[in-house]
């Protein structure tokens, strides 16, 4: 996947900002067996192997208790299906390559790149014809031509936000963030693992969420690896990922809130609110080995340490507090009301 991201970033930086974002309609279900076998014969000379593949394709599948036979499609979930699909679409790769079209393909998802609208339209026309020849059809609803100077697009779980002028120096740049669906999936998985009807120790709760955090962050950090790999090959990067940090900080806050709710189930005498937040703060969660996604992301990308993380988080909290006080003064209000002071005192008492 990193290689695919490298190609996308490289083409955008090189000025290939007209992008054909294409989706094949029901790809795995519509591969013609006859055509697939013909293509396989170019690469496989062993008739026994070809015969086994053909038998496997024609074996059919169970649907509502009935055996269904078809001359189309590869069984999804079959160990050999992705390989056969890649071999089949390799014909499309050759067509693009012979016509000098820049592209990136990951399984049945692909993007084409061009410098002008006319060139991308020609590439789209050629692609449509080749897919028709292969017995496949483009999904009109999910296929679009993107001008990256104005439009965004999604690919491989990331959202690529179009070029814009940076406010501080007016230099052009673009941003990459996880897709909204990916972030939503992250939160849902955390929510599922922190259902409060379970009575577990703090360590057990942490062991439930840490694998999810590792998996998601390892996925998100591939964009940084792709940027660095391109820079090593001499391509200066204008791709910014700072939005990712804000997203991960927000997710970390959500994870801590979910864990506090889970913890309170085993500690019913511990009051909620500021008192609970003070007792189970960032330092506490680090001490019981919760992995902050923000820290892990920056650690893998830049070698960020946990000490730096705690220092930065503390500075951010102080800065936010100052902003709240300033905002209250601007409105002619008092931030430290008697009620607020009492809550702070309760939190302080709970920390001992």
Automatic annotation (TrEMBL):
<dbReference type="Pfam" id="PF00078">
    <property type="entry name" value="RVT_1"/>
</dbReference>
<dbReference type="InterPro" id="IPR043502">
    <property type="entry name" value="DNA/RNA_pol_sf"/>
</dbReference>
<keyword id="KW-0695">RNA-directed DNA polymerase</keyword>
<keyword id="KW-0808">Transferase</keyword>
<feature type="domain" description="Reverse transcriptase">
    <location>
        <begin position="1"/>
        <end position="160"/>
    </location>
</feature>
<dbReference type="InterPro" id="IPR000477">
    <property type="entry name" value="RT_dom"/>
</dbReference>
<keyword id="KW-0548">Nucleotidyltransferase</keyword>
<dbReference type="GO" id="GO:0003964">
    <property type="term" value="F:RNA-directed DNA polymerase activity"/>
</dbReference>
<protein>
    <submittedName>
        <fullName>Retron-type reverse transcriptase</fullName>
    </submittedName>
</protein>
<dbReference type="InterPro" id="IPR043128">
    <property type="entry name" value="Rev_trsase/Diguanyl_cyclase"/>
</dbReference>
<dbReference type="InterPro" id="IPR051083">
    <property type="entry name" value="GrpII_Intron_Splice-Mob/Def"/>
</dbReference>
């Amino acid at each position: 996947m990193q290689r695919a991201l490298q190609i996308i970033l490289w083409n955008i930086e090189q000025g290939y900002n007209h992008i054909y974002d294409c989706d094949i309609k029901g790809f795995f279900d519509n591969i013609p067996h006859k055509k697939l076998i013909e293509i396989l014969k170019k690469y496989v000379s062993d008739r026994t192997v070809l015969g086994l593949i053909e038998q496997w394709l024609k074996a059919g599948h169970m649907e509502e208790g009935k055996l269904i036979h078809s001359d189309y499609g590869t069984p999804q979930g079959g160990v050999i299906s992705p390989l056969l699909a890649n071999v089949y679409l390799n014909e499309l790769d050759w067509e693009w390559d012979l016509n000098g079209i820049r592209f990136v393909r990951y399984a049945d998802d692909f993007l084409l790149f061009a410098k002008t609208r006319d060139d991308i339209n020609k590439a789209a026309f050629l692609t449509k014809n080749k897919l028709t020849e292969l017995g496949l059809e483009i999904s009109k609803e999910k296929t679009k031509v993107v001008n990256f100077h104005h439009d965004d697009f999604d690919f491989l779980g990331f959202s690529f936000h179009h070029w814009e002028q940076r406010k501080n120096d007016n230099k052009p740049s673009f941003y990459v963030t996880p897709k909204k669906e990916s972030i939503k999936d992250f939160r849902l998985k955390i929510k599922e693992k922190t259902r409060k009807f379970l009575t577990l120790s703090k360590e057990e709760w942490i062991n439930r969420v840490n694998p999810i955090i590792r998996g998601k962050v390892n996925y998100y950090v591939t964009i940084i690896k792709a940027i660095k790999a391109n820079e090593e090959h001499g391509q200066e990067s204008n791709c910014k990922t700072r939005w990712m940090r804000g997203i991960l900080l927000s997710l970390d806050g959500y994870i801590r809130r979910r864990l506090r709710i889970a913890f309170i189930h085993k500690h019913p005498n511990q009051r909620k609110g500021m008192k609970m937040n003070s007792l189970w703060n960032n330092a506490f969660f680090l001490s019981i080995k919760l992995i902050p996604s923000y820290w892990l992301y920056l650690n893998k990308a830049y070698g960020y340490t946990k000490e730096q993380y705690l220092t930065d988080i503390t500075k951010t909290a102080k800065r936010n507090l100052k902003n709240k006080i300033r905002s209250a003064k601007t409105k002619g209000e008092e931030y430290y009301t008697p009620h607020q002071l009492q809550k702070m005192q309760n939190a302080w008492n709970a920390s001992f």
